[in-house]
Amino acid sequence: MKIERPRGTRDFLPEEMEKRRAVEKVMRRIAESYGYREVMTPTFEHSELFKIKSGEEIVKEMYVFLDKGGREMALRPELTAPVVRMFLDCCEVLPKPLRFYYFSNCFRYERPQRGRFREFWQFGAELIGSNSCLAEAEVISLAYEILKALKVEFELKIGHVGIMRKVLSGIENSEKIMHLIDKKDVENLLSEMERLEVPKDVREKVLMLMDLKGDLSILEDVKIEEADRLKKLAEVLEDYKVKYKLDLGIVRGLDYYTGVVFEFYSEKLGAQKQICGGGSYELASLFGGKETPATGFAIGFDRVCEICEVDLEKRVKVVVVSFKETYSKAIEIAKKLREKDLIVIIDVMDRSVKKQLSFANDISADFALIVGGRELEAGEVLIKNLRSGEQFGVKISDLSPALFVK
User: Fold this and answer.
1) More confident residue, 359 or 252
2) Phi/psi of residue 79, each to 5°?
């Protein structure tokens, strides 16, 4: 019986993995240039961690199981909650702020479609311990610079959950309303506000704010403290040379968000166009710790890989071709060339020289290094450029990477 891979998962062949590793390398380099350091958390956690963060409904989207001790565990559906849990377990007394970044796979049980899988990867960062707009600006700038370095075409939109919450203050079940605003589900939003008997002037303000998009001028008539915070953030983003649009309809409908929220979109992805999202939040107190402000983001790594441009590392590939009687020397030469950072492949199929050369062409090798009996007697090998067809002899003692130039 043929066993297929599970639905919603993928196999990555060498070419795809080379691109993914190159993208990952860019992300790591930029995060570290800002002073962020990598952390890693377990693949599974107590399911309660995610229920506290996102509500009981999250269970429908998680892979949940009982371990042999009868404890309910879940494969992580995201990484912010585990990082905050780790902060409380290990780092709460460290000097603030803490700058963490991570890159790991996550799991959600949902209907697979383009840009949405049951196993997916996230690259993200969390700045823990600062409630300043300077921290918010730095985190936004970090995400911006990563996507810019990967030559992704994107649009950045920034909002503030406090503005909409101020309008809805005193309204029963306002978090349900916030969730519908986040989903841009206007039809159900209107029905819910009518069901909750939300005053007409509040309904009109909600709809007005949802449509408020553009530059700083849109805040001129929004006379509340949270709008002033957004103005201060905008001033710092100017220094970072970050291009953005304000969108007061962005609220990221979970109630642990406390202030600035932001999302990056790329039209190249069609319906699943969001490639990064984040904002300021407070989770530590929900997990039993002291109230601690934080700002973070998560980049949808798989979606970015689909649309980004990245330079792949070009390493020379050499196939060492030998006869049976010269195979021992071929191994010795291959070992020395690998130490010089060349990709070196040697035959393991007992093939003829002709078939070894044919295989070298099949795998798009750059050079063949032929270890022949007569050449060995003279202390030499033969190097053949498989692109140009040029070949020449060289002393084994003179072998160097400089000889293998494409």
Assistant:
1) 359
2) -120, -10
Place of tokens 């409908």: 253
pLDDT of residue 181: 87
Neighbouring C-beta atoms of residue 213, cutoff 10 Å? 14
Q: Which CATH superfamily is domain 317-403 in?
A: Anticodon-binding domain (3.40.50.800)
**Beta carbons within 10 angstroms of residue 350's beta carbon:** 9
Count the helices and strands in the chain (H runs, E runs): 13, 17
Which positions ≥6 away from 109 have C-beta within 8 Å?
60, 61, 62, 63, 118
Structure tokens at 275: 């490639």
Residue 170: count of CB within 10 angstroms of its CB? 8
Closest alpha carbon to 37 in 133, 127, 144: 127
pLDDT digits (tens, 9 = 90+) for 136-167: 999 999 999 999 999 999 999 999 998 888 88
The pTM is what? 0.91
Structural domain 14-307, CATH architecture: 2-Layer Sandwich (3.30)
Residue 103 near residue 301, CB atoms below 8 Å: yes
Using the 8-state DSSP alphabet, how is residue 7 labeled?
Answer: T
| For range 303-316, the mean pLDDT | 92
Neighbouring CB atoms inside 10 A of 49's CB total: 19
Helix (H, G, I), strand (E, B) or coil at 211: coil
Summarised one tens digit per residue, pLDDT across range 219-234 is 887 878 888 999 999 9
Phi-psi region for residue 354, left (φ > 0), alpha (ψ -120 to 50) or beta? alpha
Locate the domains of the chain by residue range: 14-307, 317-403
Is residue 308 within 8 Å of 22, Cβ to Cβ?
no
Assess contact for 23 and 310: CB atoms under 8 A: yes
Which residues lie across from 247 on neighbouring strands? 213
Q: Which residue has the tokens 């002393």?
A: 395
